[in-house]
Amino acid sequence: LANEISIQGFNFVEGAVVKVGETLIATTRINGNQILAVVPAGLAAGKYDVKVINPDNQQGVLTNGYAVYNS
């Protein structure tokens, strides 16, 4: 199942993108401090870095910020 996540931070601008591992995911910017993102179903079990990248290439990373477990 897809999973919606809320990412909290600072200086998120219009056009920012989010990656979970190397997977680019759908996002909605709420404001400069919050982004909603939908992690698609089908990611392999494991821990993934969550990266927010602004259009000017400034980025922030939460190492191992998302985990997928086998059911």
Instruction: Strand order, main sheet: write it out.
Output: 1-4-3-2-5-6
| Main pleated-sheet profile | 6 strands, antiparallel
Give the low-pLDDT segments. none
**Category from helices, strands and their pairing:** mainly beta
Helical segment tally? 0
Helix content: under 10%
Work out the strand percent: over 45%
General shape: globular
- What is the mean predicted local confidence, pLDDT? 95
Our measurement of the CA-to-CA distance between the termini, rounded to an integer number of angstroms, reads 12 Å
List descriptors:
71 residues; mainly beta; six-stranded antiparallel β-sheet
Structure overview:
This protein has 71 residues and is an all-beta fold. Helices cover 0% and strands 61% of the residues. It has strands at residues 3-8, 17-20, 23-31, 34-39, 46-53, 59-68. The protein has a six-stranded antiparallel sheet with strand order 1-4-3-2-5-6, with no helix packed on it. Strand 3 (23-31) and strand 4 (34-39) form a beta hairpin.
Topology (elements, then pairings):
Elements: E1 3-8, E2 17-20, E3 23-31, E4 34-39, E5 46-53, E6 59-68
Antiparallel strand pairs: 1-4, 2-3, 2-5, 3-4, 5-6
Quick summary of this structure?
This protein is mainly beta and 71 residues long. The chain is 0% helix and 61% strand. It is globular.
